[in-house]
Specification:
The protein is an alpha+beta fold. It has a single domain (20-194), classed as Beta Barrel (L,D-transpeptidase catalytic domain-like), CATH 2.40.440.10. Helix content is 22%, strand content 30%. It has 4 helices and 12 strands. Strands 1-2-5-4-3-12-7-8-9-11 form a 10-stranded mixed beta sheet, covered by helices on one side. The termini are far apart. It holds the Pfam family YkuD.
Length: 195
């Protein structure tokens, strides 16, 4: 009986060893980033949604962002079969978006200009200058299709406790420290697949 028990434990250890999760260092922050980030709650984020380097599960070549909506995970594919994995908050079912796009441009501490449809639903929302109170957080990556703005973004959030949930109006939200890390890694023109 003990031999079977040890065999099961050994098999479990081997299978867990195949799942390589490597914690990565936080990006270096500018003075402005550090000041704003100190004012934003960090929230309790499930370790499932922490930033890790993992074996690439996407099947995509290096240099592609893949968002797995059912898992609430974003992957940025790297060379040598690796990927950076980040937890995300996504659009609620009514506002979810899937498809392919490219990052047209990027912005640090961007100004938030809510679209007309959002203002119609929630008249209290208004344009907000970049800073720690801005719903777009520390960075925004602007998603375009065929040269046209989709109005969807990959961006930071001032509600990090919602990572891992479907709560946004369609955008892909990340913890601010994670969106800074992704922003530093990806150039404009990067392909984004949301599935």
């Amino acid at each position: 009986m003990k031999l079977v028990h040890y065999a099961v434990l050994a098999a479990m250890s081997l299978s867990l060893g195949a799942c390589q999760y490597t914690k990565t260092a936080d990006p270096v922050l500018s003075e402005r980033d550090a000041q704003f980030m100190a004012m934003i709650p960090t929230g309790d984020v499930d370790k499932m949604y922490a930033r890790y380097m993992v074996d690439n599960p996407t099947g995509e070549p290096p240099g592609v962002i893949v968002v797995e909506t059912k898992q609430h995970l974003l992957y940025y594919t790297l060379p040598d079969g690796k990927a950076m994995r980040y937890g995300v908050a996504l659009g609620s079912e009514a506002f979810g978006w899937t498809g392919e796009a490219v990052i047209d441009h990027k912005a640090e501490w961007p100004t938030w200009n809510p679209p007309a449809e959002m203002i119609a639903r929630w008249p209290h929302v208004k344009r907000t200058e970049g800073g720690w109170t801005n719903p777009l957080g520390a960075r925004a990556l602007y998603l375009f299709q065929g040269g046209k703005d989709t109005l969807y973004r990959i961006h930071g959030t001032n509600e990090p406790e919602k990572i891992g949930r479907s709560v946004s109006s369609g955008c892909i939200r990340m913890r601010n420290i994670d969106v800074i890390d992704l922003y530093n890694r990806v150039p404009a023109g990067t392909k984004v697949i949301v599935r």
